Amino acid sequence: LSDENKKAQYDQWGSTDFGTASGGSTSSGHNWQGFHSTIDPEELFRKIFGDIKMGQNNAGFPGWNFDEFAESKFGFGSTQEYVMHLSFQEAAKGVTKTASINTVDVCQKCGGKKTELGYKMVSCPYCNGSGMETFSQGPFIMRQTCRKCSGTGQFNKNPCLECEGTGHTVQRKTVSVPVPAGVEDGQTLRMQVGKKELFITFRVSKSDIFRRDGADVHTDVSISISQAILGGTVRIPGIYEDVYLQIPPATSSHTRLRVAGKGIKKVNSYGYGDHYVHVKIEVPKKLSDAQRAIIMAYAEMETNTPGTIRGVTTTAGGDKICAEDPNGYVAGIRKIFNSSVEENGSEKKDKAEKEKPAS
What CA–CA distance (Å, rounded) separates 231 from 251? Predict the structure, then answer.
């Protein structure tokens, strides 16, 4: 312990004797007979090569065992990703759809026994059924997993020709996919199919009616001028059912009205979004003579016109007069209003006279 060099050698190698000893093989002038390692050679081998198993594959053929399943007309493995196309309504309300995918299942020929019909597994002749091989490398004795049976202790002398001795094959199956209500375009759902996981990505087509913003939906509705001025109701298509929307009086174009709770179901929380309706006033392109006369009569009475009105002139006194009235409709409407005003004035005057106290 007083010799620092020997102490370091002892701590590292477990011995300070590196001299020549009988029966030991030498390499580069050193005798390694006194070498003692605490590292398991098998563990060292595994650290170098990882989890790759050297030896026979499940069919009993030697070599590196990379393939898990046999090749089939459907490919080498199960489907891991699937793209499902949905309409807007299917994504909003939820639906159950089917998908044809590749799945790994028990071989239908051998029933998972891995051998041809009428044959069985035999004890591995290379490791005598122990699953381990022992061999020497100079002074070392190494043990590793049997290269023929991969540690199973059994040897497949007559592997199934359908699954190549794996016991499983890739098969095409149709599975039901429950699509939850409210999924969005590009969203991925993880689904358990047997022992494997299937990742389903949804592609949602656009709607001609609805525009989506998370759980909220937006639609446009056209109303008439009379509805915009006087108010009323209008029927609009909804996600789940048609909705009768109340139009308040004096509604301007591009007004946004909210229908609470009539949107799309929220996927990661409770409740539903809202349905927003954008109002557009539809201006008639053709008018009858009577309709035009009514509008012109209204234009004469309008007081907050920002500019001028085509077909209406302003007198020196500031009154508006319809310039063209071939059928006399505007004059008739004006006469009706004027007479109504005169009658109301007379009634008010008579009422005031009656209520006037006697002198």
Answer: 7
